[in-house]
Amino acid sequence: ESSTTCEVCQGAEEMTEPLKQCTAWLHAYFCEPARIANLPLPAFHHPLLQQDSFTRHVLWTLLRDVKFGEAVSYKQLADLAGNSRAARAVGGAMRSNPIPIIIPCHRVIRSSGQTGNYGGGNIMKEWLLSHEKLQKEKLAY
């Protein structure tokens, strides 16, 4: 458990509304996870998330179906996305994720239970999974 307090960057009054939403969402994720469900998701304008593709479908499925504190295997996510034989393609979609943490690719693990790879590094992936598990346990009390 961290002894540091969460701080929002200075100059928040100069931020655009989408950036304020993103900052509020990330602040809640790290500091007040119980609030996440009540916050709107920041607007997603990345071209990858606008085009009709399997990657987009996988990322939206992950965002919609795998909740805070949960994990899913690449194969399970492929099943959820409608193509049970596309576990490798799910891995490619995770590598292409333009907004990790918000679209929680760290929640996708190997069928063996090992964490697998993560663009931010495996130590970061393990920390994010531990953070969510600890916060979910706290919320259960």
UniProtKB/TrEMBL annotation:
GO MF terms on file?
A: DNA binding; metal ion binding; methylated-DNA-[protein]-cysteine S-methyltransferase activity
Cofactor(s) listed: Zn(2+)
Tell me which EC number(s) this protein carries. 2.1.1.63
Reactions catalysed, semicolon-separated, are: a 6-O-methyl-2'-deoxyguanosine in DNA + L-cysteinyl-[protein] = S-methyl-L-cysteinyl-[protein] + a 2'-deoxyguanosine in DNA; a 4-O-methyl-thymidine in DNA + L-cysteinyl-[protein] = a thymidine in DNA + S-methyl-L-cysteinyl-[protein]
Q: Mostly located where?
A: nucleus
GO terms classed as biological process: DNA repair; methylation
Where in the numbering of this chain does the Methylated-DNA-[protein]-cysteine S-methyltransferase DNA binding domain appear?
Answer: 59-133
| This protein's UniProt keywords | DNA damage, DNA repair, DNA-binding, Metal-binding, Methyltransferase, Nucleus, Phosphoprotein, Transferase, Zinc
Alphabetical GO CC annotations of the entry are: nucleoplasm
Localization per Swiss-Prot or TrEMBL: Nucleus
Q: Which PANTHER family does the record associate with it? A: METHYLATED-DNA--PROTEIN-CYSTEINE METHYLTRANSFERASE
Q: What does this protein do?
A: Involved in the cellular defense against the biological effects of O6-methylguanine (O6-MeG) and O4-methylthymine (O4-MeT) in DNA. Repairs the methylated nucleobase in DNA by stoichiometrically transferring the methyl group to a cysteine residue in the enzyme. This is a suicide reaction: the enzyme is irreversibly inactivated.
Similarity field: Belongs to the MGMT family.
Q: What is this protein called?
A: Methylated-DNA--protein-cysteine methyltransferase
Q: What species was this sequence derived from?
A: Crotophaga sulcirostris
